[in-house]
Amino acid sequence: MMIESSANSQQAVELWLTMLKVVFRLRNSIRPVFTEHGLTGPQWRVFRMLGEAGGDGLTPGQMSDELRVTQGNTTGIVDKLEEAGLVQRKPHPDDRRALLISLTEQGEKMYYEVRPLFDARVTELLGCLPSDSKASMLCLMRQVLQHLDNVNAGTGHDCGSGPSHDACN
Hints:
The structure is a single chain. By secondary structure, the protein is mostly helical. The chain is built from 7 helices and 2 strands. Helix 1 packs across helix 5 (105-125).
């Protein structure tokens, strides 16, 4: 049985496959920055979030929402980082049922050591793109993310219309 698809479908599938290739190659290309410091990619994502949050830290729920993973996954990552002495759990000052996760002094030191290496490597990896192309791609990827949120929430709107599309121009 032969499946026929429209040119639009073929183009969408080709874009999907190309995006996957790009993501996998980017992950493989950035991985040495983490492994040189004993971190995995998911650990770096948590680590970076905490470094950017500063202050008292984040709750496991806030981290899971941002990472788009279950709290169980976040807990496993935090456990490993805590065992390494890089993060700490503290009681939330306003909610006795909640915890805050933050970087330890050792964790902050590592964050400020790895962050510039990460930024430099990402800049190198995407260096083939002029600034305006990066801005356009960022806008388009955010548009796709918004569309995916809408589709997954059952409110699917055309990603080619609306305020997010206008913001790209």
